[in-house]
Amino acid sequence: xxxxxxxxxxxxxxxxxxxxxxxxxxxxxxxxxxxxxxxxxxxxxxxxxxxxxxxxxxxxxxxxxxxxxxxxxxxxxxxxxxxxxxxxxxxxxxxxxxxxxxxxxxxxxxxxxxxxxxxxxxxxxxxxxxxxxxxxxxxxxxxxxxxxxxxxxxxxxxxxxxxxxxxxxxxxxxxxxxxxxxxxxxxxxxxxxxxxxxxxxxxxxxxxxxxxxxxxxxxxxxxxxxxxxxxxxxxxxxxxxxxxxxxxxxxxxxxxxxxxxxxxxxxxxxxxxxxxxxxxxxxxxxxxxxxxxxxxxxxxxxxxxxxxxxxxxxxxxxxxxxxxxxxxxxxxxxxxxxxxxxxx
Length: 344
Known about the structure:
Layout: E1 2-5, E2 8-14, H1 22-33, E3 53-59, E4 67-74, E5 81-82, H2 88-100, E6 110-117, E7 122-129, E8 153-158, E9 176-178, E10 181-187, E11 191-196, H3 208-212, H4 215-231, E12 244-249, E13 257-262, H5 273-282, H6 289-293, E14 301-308, E15 311-319, E16 325-332, E17 334-338
Parallel strand pairs: 2-3, 4-6, 11-12, 13-14
Antiparallel strand pairs: 1-2, 1-17, 3-4, 4-5, 6-7, 7-8, 8-16, 9-10, 10-11, 12-13, 14-15, 15-16
């Protein structure tokens, strides 16, 4: 089934429908997407990392969990399939897919689905509209980066802190200096390096194409990323898709912080869900580059608008009495695009 989840889209497969051997599975998915090729002309991919994604879903045997979800990023112009990261956008379509495929039985007008994210060991809960026992994709919820409206699918993440790096702040510090630049190394669902855009020579308001053409800036950011990898317990990251690089600036569209995201070698058209959650959390870290620029509301539960090239992603972060994040959420939408067979 081909689905849009949030601002991404890709193939959703039942685990049993793919080869059991990971190498054979990855070879099949490269064929499905048409990689490696910049246009992915001989496959279903759209020539962009955001449209070259795969969700593998199975019924879960874990207590309190309905389905297991493995996210796979299929590289566009390289023969690489990686499970090194999660994807919160594709996650938005996992619960509807599970209902469509009979892995979860609808329960009334709204069905709650607990999803175990195999990449990071986290659990997320999605609430899917199911009037009449069927998924209803229509609605009036709008998210930045997606035209039109659709049914709201709220996501709440549990235990996101340190999911890939072992701790929310893997160095134990809110601020580090890496390759001469002040950064926050953070993982609240997505490993990220957060720094002021001005510190790498940009404003933080440029469009995607302008930044993708800025070879000097991208080389500078990549040097910082490679140096940050071992500090984040990620090892040598030169061939990895994490950490993501987040260049922040003062907000100017009504949000709390503006960001340009490198994922990591191309500039993101918007921002990933869990990347946005990590940036929003960085805004709460005292003395951090993000905190110095953020315009935050008061309270323990805060809606933190993360501005990006195509709009604003609203994160909801709840902290404990000591200011540590205990729950992070997001509003997403999803839509079924095609159901059928794909040929190798």
